[in-house]
Amino acid sequence: MEMVPSEENQFVPKEIQNAAEEPRVLCIIQDITSAKTVNERLTLNLPASTTLSKLYEDVAHKAGYVNGTFDLAWGNTPDMAPLDHSSEMSLSDSAFEPGGKRNFLQLTDKDGEQPQIASDESGTADSSGMDDSSQERFIGPLPRDGTAGCSGDYSSPSYSYSSILNKSETGYVGLVNQAMTCYLNSLLQTLFMTPEFRNALYNWEFEESEEDPVTSIPYQLQRLFVLLQTSKKRAIETTDVTRSFGWDSSEAWQQHDVQELCRVMFDALEQKWKQTEQADLINQLYQGKLKDYVRCLECGYESWRIDTYLDIPLVIRPFGASQAYGSVEEALQAFIQPETLDGPNQYFCERCKKKCDARKGLRFLHFPYLLTLQLKRFDFDYTTMHRIKLNDRMTFPEELDMSPFIDVEDEKSPQTESCTDSGAENEGSCHSDQMSNDFSTDDCVDEGICLDSTSSTERVLKPKITQDDIRKTYGGSSGNRGYYSSAFASSTNAYMLIYRLKDPSRNAKYLAAEDFPEHIKSLVQKEKESEEQEKRQREIERNTCKIKLFCMHPVKMMMESKLEVHKDKTLREATEMAYKLMELEGVVSLDCCRLVKYDEFHEYLERSYEGEEDTPMGLLLGGVKSSYMFDLLLETRRPEQVFQPYKPGEVMVKVHVVDLKSETIASPISVRAYLNQTITEFKQLIAQATGLSAETMRVVLERCYNDLRLLCVPNKTLKAEGFFRSNKVFVESSELTDHQVTFTDSLLWKLLDRHGNTIRLLVLLPEQSPGTLANRTLCQKVGGDSDAPFEGSKGNRKSVEAILEESTEKLKNLSLQQQQGSSTSDSQKSSDASDFEHIESPTQEVDSNSSLCVAADNRELENRLRATVGGAGGASSDPENHFACEERSDSEVNNDRSTSSVDSDILSSSHSSDTLCNADSGPIQLANGLDSHSITSSRRSKAHEGKKETWDTAEEDSGTDSEYDDNGKSKAEAQYLYFRAEPCSQDDATWDTQKCLVVHVDKRITLAAFKQNLEPYVGVTSTQFKVFRVYANNQEFESVRLNETLSSFSDDNKITIRLGRALKKGEYRVKVYQLLVNEPEPCKFLVDTVFAKGMTVRQSKEELLPQLKEQCKLDLSIDRVRLRKKTWKNPGTVFLDYHVYEEDISISSNWEVFLEVLNEPEKMKSMSQLAVLTRRWSPATMKLGPFQEVILESSSVEELKEKLCEISDIPLENLEFAKGRGTFPCDISVLEIHQDLDWNPKVSTLNVWPLYICDDGAVVFYRDSTEEPLELSEDERNELMKKESSRLLKTGHRVSYSPRKEKALKIYLDGGPAKDPGQD
Length: 1320
Hints:
Ubiquitin carboxyl-terminal hydrolase 47, ubl conjugation pathway, thiol protease, six-stranded mixed sheet, single chain, EC 3.4.19.12
């Protein structure tokens, strides 16, 4: 009997006689009826004969809509009329393309109305007694069968496990494909359909006391065969079998050879069956004998040996041949065809005592009971250097006569082999039966179908394999498949054939269930009970609601889990389950908890369920669905509190109270309101919740990013103001005159503006600063006595008030010296290109470095210090106010170490404008204690919103801007933005806390001002260190655009500070690579250097050569090196010494150039010259010569030929040339160069088609036309082909295919591979 997987991927209705012939249509439907479903895709694979009306039914069923309430239109031409709902035209007649091509459709509204959700079997929605969730569109796999909204059942429509629990109409049980285990399934099916093997396996009894059943290969095979014979399922898993092999899940993704698996598995079975009755089973069934002989043609002496075999490998196409064998008989004849040993391959005859011509071959002596033929469809292509699969046609008969192939001299009674069993291997493909809506993913099922209908039971099974189905496995071209395909291409060509000896005395029948041995009967009963238990469990799963659950835990904060509750469980029981799931026992009483409907995305409490504690969860949730458009929140309260009812239609508002006097923003208070309420009513509602006065209350709505709206129209509704499900407002009610000024000029707006623009950065300081520790603590010494920059102990420093009072007068004087200090500092900056030469640290003299610590004028400092010292006790006295400091200088920031850190949760990030807050506008204090959702990112300053927004990204660094203006005055002096630095705490430390700063800064600050603020901590001036932004995977890129803001940074971004001279305006960082034209790797990195605008090429070489000598040990002469353009790996224009950067040569940030060492002084003197790299090809030796440079005075082809003649001594009339292809060095195989290149193009100049040689660096090959190519034997050509393929792969050229790395197939008898302890 033959095991051949079904030809089609799905079973078709019974009225279709031949399922294999029915083409199918793949339909992909996009639901564009709502924003929730626009990204979802429905996929249907239907027979081409399906009518349009049936298509609508299937789409309605799968999408969960009522049929007739939506339209289907073509996705690529949506303007066409929708498909007809009632049409009986087939898909193939309606312009649908079959054969695996994708047909894109769009599911649209009908007559402007949205589709109706199918909420019960009749397709009508009954929302009585249900909340609005019953009308929501579900996303994901179809809900399970039943109805929703009815009192007796709460499941959603059309879900059944019948497809997996009911056996196929073929009468056979399939195998689920784990991933790429088609080869395994084919072999298991073949062995199962071999009666002798199956019966022998049943007769073996497993002793559980001797071995673990999980690792016993025979026992797991026995279980699998029992299930294949007795199970009521459509398909079963093979994971238990592969687990007994010692395989992990990754093995399922490895494609292997079925013949190799057969050999390895037979070896493993023989090892496991030692000392049992089945010890010799494999040899008895599959082992044959053959003679390997050599016969002398002079004396007739024959030398031979007897070998055994388990299978016969048959060549599909002989090596080097263009024609394949047409049948198995031809391949068998070729297998035993002797070859003549003559010439250098002569055989040494022991009788003749000399080398003689001989005949070497194989003869079959004995054929096994089960003959296995392996058709060698895999081959190795030495041109592409990867495996290929041969799809040539090879026929095989149903009965195979083996008498012509037996050695009648040695075996007097010839045997006749006949085919009653044959296996077809669908290598690389999975012909599967897709289970509709059974699991979240489709499982692949390989179904074995019997060919031999010898019993009455088998004769009634449908569908029956026909001869036409078998002919499809012969191979040959089908469709547009090429002569051969890749190793992993899909095909159904026969790969392994198994024939059984036609002997009525030995041919066995399958054991019937009543004839099973007792241990097999016990196993059948055990598996039956297991299936019943699985069925009951799936029934429970089918009626279980699974929904995401959240809880604001009093100790663990926000927790998330999944609540799985039976649809018949009441809300009270579900609440108790959620209570235990969230580990609230002992923390909160159960009476203080309730479940409410929750929208996690908008943080919106949709509704509560008062009075519905005894209502089943199936009704409350709208049925059992694969996914829900809402979540549940387990809400808690204190014993003295009362739960607030949440009604559908309400909106939730988070109210933040702003105190202008202390400049704090409080944690949010939740208030629920209706959209039709007016602003006046809303203020009254807030007044009740907060105790503020509604008369003087100002309410600011944060609608979205960059949008703060003052709600000042009393009769306007919340809906008209833009309120949605979840909203955030800031309220302030005070007697101050701040409400009398324009909102954008008010203190309230400025406080909220800073509140939304401050970000938190982690800054890693350099390992060692050129200055001393005292230098790095300059600002601390200015204001106090502390020498420890990151000392956190309050006992070692003065109080904030004392430090500020003591430093007031000093800061006044320092402020007056600020401009002078900036000029002095600027004059000391090094202009040397080296990163570390002449780095100057700030001196400890306060007068000469006052610019490092001062950022505000005297009047403002006095006002701030008075307000801080004489105000509400300062920050250290109020644990709720972490932001008692106002806008202040660096010295104040460094002295105030007792100030608490900013709560990281209040800082958020987004893009913002580069506008700066003027210091005169007044500083705004930030607040602590806000939740993680209470901050909106950057606000745009109304007064500056016309300014251009800029971004600081590593990729856009093109040039730099000076941080000083033309007068030497710091550009950061005129405007000041919030900056505060503090040592990194242990909780924040991803780096060493002694080297890390936590910086809270307004992201509208420029990079130049940010660097100046960092000077006291780095210990050097801003021109002597560089700022690197740390991206994912710890990749670092330098930020050099000093005039740009930190708007692209976000909370907890990392910054690394490195010592070295920062770029000035007009300077560019350049990477220098050495060009080595005749080396295997022609591009070698040397150094990073700096080129400046206006510098000549010779000047850049003068500065570069000492750097190369020091860092690369290259001692070069300036007249023996050249710089040239680098484009990827291609050498380009040669730069002449007098060229000026930015004038003659375009330059950009992170520029790359080639440095080329010359053997003689530079010959390039003019831009009109052309430098070409030439290489000689010698066909007679099959070799390429080294590169030689040719300098041309013009673009003339004749001049090029003359120059080539000079360096090669080839006569001009015999010289031919061709341009190289691809990137430098334009590698090409020596087997292809002679024919593949366009030799001797008929052009007179180089700058026209097909050459297009217009710039330096082009590669030109040349040859002598009279030189004949070397004649190569087949072996020499193959050897050279291997070498060339290896060479080209190493250089990265012509790699068009990267085959998956194949893993050796192993079966582990000890339960699994030994893991290398050195590996992860």
